[in-house]
Write a structure and sequence with these properties.
Radius of gyration: 28 Å
Low-confidence stretches: 1-13, 319-352, 748-755
Largest sheet: 4 strands, mixed
Mean pLDDT: 88
Strand order of the largest sheet: 5-8-10-9
Helix content: 40-55%
Number of helices: 26
Number of strands: 15
Shape: globular
Oligomer: single chain
Strand content: 5-15%
Length: 755
């Protein structure tokens, strides 16, 4: 294959396996972490040095290859599945095929935002996918997400590792501080923060925008707890910043769940306070929430306006515009997964509510009972990320069970218990989204930390520990032994039995520590610290393989067909390309500077996807598969070149202009320029010779009547929701500046003393 090259957007030049510059991402994360610790020590609550050191070790164990070793935290091994990358050498360890969306969807959106910022313009429109689509209104783009912006000093592949490390660090630090604010001492708070920060929800969804909600939820809760104490305006400022970062997270559903949990804890705090201070607390926090919402309006309002026009909205409606043939996050393994799941679906159809409850609840305790999507085979409800992201450690779950029978409770422990119970109820019979595992996992970690604190104070009984341990052990044995693959009971048997043994070991270790140290007068804090290390070790053992680092040679390599398309469309930038079948997956060409007529995104414009119906021959989940290469719609869309398999034979008048073992490229005669097929979103303005002209729509496309002659036409995309959002953001910034304005000294009149 020759030398490895970065693509156009990533500095097209040969790259070495490692250089001293590869240390910079790790140094940058270390600098940001040290700055955060200093700011917390100066203005808020300090994090002890030994806890920060432990968090640093955790980050190194997770991300050393990508922060210091020159590797990449993107599933680049997934490129090998399709033309024109089938001849690439595999990576070791192999990529996680469950993470295909990170390279096909999330990274191209982030790249489009970077391109807009670097050009000095607002990231409002993505012109390189489909007929164009809104960019700022697409939550996947994370245009103003702080943790994404902090990765901008580095290239896109390096920034993925930086953002991931910052997500984990944010979750660890602020979960620790929040638990300390709940009245817990250092060791229990440390154990709870490790259980949450290394838990399934954050690490399994680490590359998706969902992880932003998991990272900032503890920050918002900590800020609310700070506001509960009479203090300065900096606590309200922290709450506003945390809420703003949460609102800019990029995943609306988890943002709503996180805000719901934050508001629940806030109202509980207000309920406990006297009437006067309750009013002050609600005014202080309500103002912070309102200012954060106003500042986030330029992102929120366009997303709200655009959402009903999207493919995801159409799929939610009863009448679907197309059929989904094969769907799987694992790409080429979808057919096998569907075959494996069919017996399970038949069993579910005949099962009662108890089976559905088991399918929903069991992965919270036994995450590998139904296999594991990381290893290609899973026969649960959906996939490992969806079903097992609520796992926070065997010892954590044991401690959470012990919290049920506690005699003395911490102030908001009952609220956490009720919230966890509500999440479990909504997950099972109601069948709501598995994203509810986010608040559930946080509540379980809080309950477990409360039990560790009671244990430190000598309030945990040995008998209760033994009963809870036996019960949990029976659940684990039943979960792993009674849930073999229905189509092949031997499949992944060694893997499942191995995890049963590992979880039983950690369960026995936690039980022995809790039982043996229960009678100690000293050393219980050390015992809790050992439990925290055991929780971290188990979670790293199970979740670290979900995010394998990839070698730099796989960073968007340039094969022959891609080089040809770059050369030809670079000379003629006013045209698009497309690929037939599942070759060169949609959105991915945009990373090479190519404009693709296809688009893969749940936020894709529904009207445009309906316009593509004559050339869409199948759907792979939400990924359109194009065919019918002789259809006149291709030249109408400005498609000048089609990429196909190496041995493809397309009908005339299509002409093959390039072929090699990686693929073939075919020229489409009569292709129209891009401006002839532009998606009409309602935010366009047409200026003809500097004067505004009316626009119209022609189906999904922008249209406008033009007078005869030669004119200079300028198209400006300025959605009204964005303009109103800027107005609201200005009001929010003004209100924030007024609230933070320093108050001058109060002057009082002084009477002269009597003579």
């Amino acid at each position: 294959m020759g030398e490895n090259y970065h693509c156009r957007l990533l500095d097209c030049r040969p790259v070495a396996d490692w250089s001293p510059l590869d240390l910079l991402p790790g140094l940058w994360v270390g600098l940001l972490g040290a700055s955060l610790a200093a700011a917390l020590r100066r203005w808020f609550d300090p994090v002890p040095g030994r806890v920060l050191a432990a968090f640093s070790v955790v980050l190194l164990l997770l991300f050393a290859p990508v922060l210091l070793g020159g590797k990449v935290l993107l599933p680049l091994d997934n490129l090998r599945g399709e033309v024109p990358f089938q001849r690439l050498a595999p990576a070791e360890p192999p990529g996680n095929f469950l993470q295909g969306d990170l390279i096909r969807l999330v990274t191209p959106s982030l790249a489009a935002v970077r391109t807009a910022w670097s050009a000095g313009r607002w990231p409002l429109w993505n012109a390189q996918v489909g007929a164009g689509m809104p960019l700022l209104a697409d939550p996947q783009a994370q245009a103003l997400q702080p943790l994404v912006l902090l990765g901008y000093p580095f290239s896109l592949p390096q920034a993925a590792g930086v953002t991931a490390a910052l997500r984990v660090l944010t979750a660890l630090v602020f979960c620790f501080l929040w638990l300390r604010r709940q009245g817990l001492t250092e060791a229990p708070a440390f154990a709870g923060s490790l259980a949450y920060g290394l838990g399934g929800f954050l690490l399994l969804w680490l590359g998706w925008p969902i992880a932003n909600s998991a990272a900032f939820l503890p920050l918002a809760l900590y800020a609310v707890a700070r506001c509960d104490d009479p203090g300065g305006r900096r606590d309200a400022l922290l709450l506003g910043l945390g809420t703003l970062a949460l609102l800019l997270g990029g995943h609306p559903e988890t943002i709503l769940y996180a805000l719901g949990l934050v508001l629940t804890f806030l109202l509980d705090l207000a309920r406990r306070r006297p009437a006067g201070s309750r009013r002050a607390l609600l005014v202080r926090t309500g103002g912070a929430f309102a200012i954060a919402g106003l500042i986030a309006a330029p992102v929120l309002l366009p997303a709200i306006e655009y959402a009903p026009k999207t493919l995801r909205a159409a799929r939610i409606r009863p009448a679907l515009p197309h059929r989904a043939t094969e769907t799987s996050p694992g790409g080429r393994f979808a057919s096998e997964k569907r075959r494996l799941n069919s017996p399970v679906r038949e069993r579910r159809a005949d099962a009662g509510g108890s089976t559905m409850v088991a399918l929903r609840w069991l992965p919270i305790a036994a995450p590998n009972a139904y296999g594991n999507s990381r290893y290609l085979y899973y026969w649960g409800l959906s996939n490992t990320n969806e079903d097992a992201s609520g796992f926070a450690g065997t010892a954590t779950l044991l401690a959470a069970l012990l919290a049920l029978g506690a005699r003395r409770r911490f102030p908001q422990e009952r609220l956490a218990m009720g919230s966890a119970a509500l999440c479990l109820i909504l997950l099972a019979p109601v069948g709501l989204s598995s994203r509810l595992l986010l608040p559930l996992s946080l509540c379980l970690c809080y309950l477990g930390a409360c039990t560790f604190e009671r244990f430190r104070m000598g309030e945990v009984r040995r008998r209760s520990v033994l009963i809870a341990a036996v019960g949990l052990g029976l659940v684990l044995v039943w979960g792993y032994l009674a849930h073999a693959d229905p189509s092949d009971p031997q499949r992944l048997e060694v893997f499942r039995f191995g995890w049963l043994r590992w979880q039983l070991r950690f369960l026995v270790l936690a039980t022995l520590i809790l039982v043996a140290a229960a009678s100690w007068r000293r050393g219980r804090s050390l015992a809790v610290a050992v439990l925290a290390i055991a929780i971290g070790a188990e979670l790293l053992l199970i979740h670290k393989p979900a995010n394998p680092p990839m070698p730099r040679r796989l960073v968007l390599p340039l094969t022959g067909p891609v080089r040809f398309l770059q050369a030809k469309l670079g000379q003629n930038p006013g045209y698009r390309m497309a690929a037939l079948g599942r070759a060169f997956p949609p959105n991915l060409p945009s990373l090479y500077g190519l404009t693709d007529a296809r688009v893969y995104n749940p936020m894709a414009p529904q009207a445009y996807m309906e316009a593509l119906a004559p050339i869409i021959v199948a759907w792979w989940g939400e990924l359109p598969v194009l065919g019918n290469p002789g259809h006149p719609l291709y030249p109408r869309l400005g498609v000048r070149y089609l990429l196909a398999a190496p041995g493809a034979a397309l009908p005339p008048p299509l002409r093959r202009v390039y072929a090699d073992p990686d693929g073939s490229v075919w020229e489409v005669p009569g292709a129209l320029p891009l401006s002839s097929s532009l998606y009409q979103d309602g935010g366009w303005r047409l200026l003809l010779a500097g004067h505004a002209r009316p626009t119209a729509s022609e189906g999904a496309f922008l249209a406008a009547p033009l007078p005869a002659g030669r004119w200079r036409a300028d198209l400006l995309y300025r959605p009204r929701a964005f303009l109103w959002g800027c107005v609201l953001a200005a009001l929010g910034l003004t209100a924030a500046a007024a609230a933070l304005k320093p108050r001058g000294p109060t002057r009082t009149a002084r009477a002269d003393p009597p003579a």
